[in-house]
Design a protein that fits this description.
The chain is an all-alpha fold and 97 residues long. The protein has 3 helices and no strands.
C-alpha cells in the first residue's frame, strides 16, 4: 500500500485510468477478433467491414495511447495480410526459392 500522499494519489489515478481503459481495450480486442472470425468463415464482405472498423478502433486506441502506435500498425498489417491471403491468394507474393 502507498504511504506518501503522492503515492496515494498516483494509486487513485491509476485505478481510475484502469477503469476507463478496460472497456476500450475490450472493444478493441473484440473488433480484431471479428475480423479473424469473418475471415475464418470465408465471409469477405463481413471481414472487410469488420477490418474497416478494427482499423478505426486501432487508430483511436493509438491516439489515446491505450496501445503503442507501432503495435497498432503491426496489428493492422497482420489483419490486412490475413484478408489478402484469405480472399486474394493469387496476389500474395511467393517467396523466392
Amino acid at each position: 500500500m502507498p504511504n506518501s500522499p503522492s503515492a496515494k494519489k498516483a494509486l487513485r489515478k491509476s485505478l481510475t485510468r484502469r477503469d476507463q481503459n478496460r472497456p476500450q481495450r475490450t472493444a478493441l480486442r473484440n473488433a480484431v477478433k471479428k475480423v479473424r472470425k469473418a475471415a475464418e468463415a470465408q465471409d469477405e464482405a463481413g471481414a472487410r467491414n469488420a477490418f474497416k472498423f478494427a482499423v478505426k478502433k486501432l487508430d483511436q486506441s493509438a491516439d489515446k495511447e491505450l496501445i503503442h502506435k507501432n503495435t497498432a500498425a503491426r496489428v493492422k498489417s497482420r489483419l490486412s495480410a490475413l484478408l489478402k491471403r484469405t480472399f486474394n491468394p493469387d496476389k500474395v507474393a511467393q517467396p523466392a526459392s
